[in-house]
Design goal:
Layout: E1 2-3, E2 9-10, H1 12-15, H2 37-43, H3 46-49, H4 53-69, H5 75-94, H6 106-118, H7 131-167, E3 172-177, E4 180-186, H8 187-212, E5 214-215, H9 231-237, E6 242-243, H10 247-252, H11 255-281, E7 289-290, H12 309-333, H13 345-370, E8 372-373, H14 375-380, H15 388-397, H16 402-419, H17 428-432, H18 448-453, H19 463-479
Parallel strand pairs: 5-6
Antiparallel strand pairs: 1-2, 3-4, 7-8
GO cellular component, one term: cytosol
Organism: Hyalella azteca
Keywords: Lyase
Length: about 500
């Protein structure tokens, strides 16, 4: 019940204007009362799924061909439907499409407008089709296209890392474990570590594309299609590589969305780690690099501040992505068989993550491309204490077992600390008091360049190893192809 302006109580049906608000719905017939306006808003997904207007019309055009081939539409009817769908598409594209209150979702909106344009023949389009297989198809088409765009953004970031690695391959800096200075490395080697992570993310994106590239259209609500349509031809019309072979699973499956959210979450975790390093390295305490003004902000109180907000926001979004993935997995885990309206939650998670992710990739590509590397600060962070492992390696090359050599190197560190000397200032006699294997050639150990160059095997930070990494990554970028997807679906 609701109360009108005169204080009289009326039923919700009367307050809503009887059955008028339910006109145009695809599920009418057995309902007599109007929908509660709060339920109307709660149930509607149009504000989210209207982004798939092109994919919805793409699927409808292909489905019209399928039911024409099955003899359910005459050639004239099929042509009329397709011309009408093209007109609806043009309205969405131009921004002239007028949404009606009864437009529950993008499917309802498009069918309602189609029938307004071409008459009742438009009602034949939905023969044997359900919104269950329709929305599953739309979502797969939309995501498949978006994966192609995401791959491009991701490749651009890898290219940016490769370009900066080339620029900085002669720059030596401190490598860290436990946030403690550990061993000298090339700045390029640090950059390439993230390029390799992103290469792995592209492989995950390929797997996500494969799980998305299957056609559920023609599965109906859950039991299949009774009109013997050619589903393989329908899938081919939409550019899918295969059909889904179980109609119940096909309308209920959102694993491909979960796969995408997992891919995005793992990618964003890598972007977050890169952002963490960039934030630290741009601080006065490190000073290894400086972010461009275009990717920084200032303080409203402290004029001297230059804040790395770009990379901080990336770190924050990584947490949001984890929440989106976890939340959607919770939606999936307890559903009964086939389609349930809970699955409508996939759009909010999917679209939010998808659009945010491309922004993150664009921002970080700009950050990496424009940051200024401070070669002097990187060099100044190197200290001879970081060559302690090299002392052990020196003794190993003289024939000493590594465990023994490690202990002797520790004694050298202790002696240098007691005498308050750098390693290079220790006399040969002082070193020989620890091991007679020390000879005059030990002076070669006190070179950061030599230290870095000894790591020449695959995966190392030596110049030749870094060059091999860049060659492999360049080859991967140049040969990477995610897979063709249909662009001009109306042709």
């Amino acid at each position: 019940m609701t109360t009108n302006s005169t204080g009289e109580q009326t039923s919700i049906s009367t307050a809503c204007g009887g059955n008028q608000s339910d006109e145009g719905k695809l599920w009418g017939g057995r309902f007599t009362g109007a929908t509660d306006p709060i339920m109307e808003r709660f149930n509607s997904s149009l504000q989210r799924d209207k982004i798939m207007f092109k994919e919805d019309i793409q699927g409808s055009i292909a489905y019209s061909r399928a039911i024409e081939r099955a003899g359910l539409l005459t050639a004239e009817e099929a042509t009329k439907i397709r011309v009408g769908l093209e007109s609806v598409l043009q309205e969405w594209t131009s921004g002239s499409f007028v949404v009606h209150p009864s437009d529950e979702d993008i499917h309802t909106a498009n069918e309602r407008r189609l029938k307004e344009l071409i008459g009742e023949v438009g009602g034949k389009l939905h023969t044997g089709r359900s919104r269950n297989d329709q929305v599953a198809t739309d979502t797969r088409l939309w995501l498949r296209s978006h994966l192609g765009a995401t791959a491009t953004w991701l490749l651009d970031l890898i290219k940016a890392l490769l370009a900066r690695a080339e620029d900085t391959k002669h720059v030596l800096c401190a490598g860290y474990t436990h946030l403690q200075r550990a061993q000298p490395v090339r700045f390029a080697h640090w950059l390439l570590s993230f390029a390799w992570w992103l290469r792995g993310d592209l492989r995950r994106l390929e797997q996500c594309y494969t799980s998305t590239d299957q056609c559920p259209l023609g599965c109906g609500a859950l039991a299949g299609n009774p009109f013997n349509i050619d589903r393989k031809a329908l899938a081919a019309d939409l550019g899918f590589s295969s059909v889904m072979h179980n109609s119940m699973m096909a309308v209920a499956d959102r694993d491909f969305v979960a796969d995408y959210l997992y891919f995005a979450t793992m990618l964003c975790s890598h972007l977050s780690r890169l952002s963490e390093d960039l934030s630290l390295y741009s601080s006065a305490e490190f000073g290894y690099e400086q972010l461009a003004d275009a990717y920084s902000t200032g303080s409203s109180l402290m004029p001297q501040k230059k804040n790395p907000d770009s990379v901080e926001l990336v770190r924050g979004k990584a947490a949001t992505f984890i929440g989106r993935l976890t939340g959607f997995l919770c939606v999936l885990k307890g559903l009964p068989s086939t389609y349930n309206k809970d699955l409508q939650e996939d759009k909010e998670a999917l679209f939010d993550v998808a659009f945010t992710l491309t922004d993150l990739l664009g921002v970080l590509t700009g950050v990496v491309t424009t940051m200024r590397v401070n070669t002097e600060a990187c060099r100044a962070a190197l200290s001879e204490s970081m060559l302690a492992t090299d002392i052990a390696y020196y003794l190993v090359r003289k024939g000493m077992a590594f465990r023994t050599a490690h202990g002797k190197a520790g004694e050298v560190v202790k002696l240098a600390e007691e005498l308050q000397k750098p390693f290079s200032s220790l006399s040969l006699d002082e070193l020989r008091s620890i091991s007679p294997l020390f000879t005059a050639d030990v002076s070669s150990v006190w070179s950061f360049e030599s230290s870095v160059e000894q790591y020449s095997s695959d995966g190392g930070t030596g110049m030749a190893a870094v060059a091999r990494q860049m060659e492999l990554l360049h080859s991967f970028v140049e040969s990477f192809k995610l897979g063709a997807h249909v662009e001009n679906f109306a042709s």
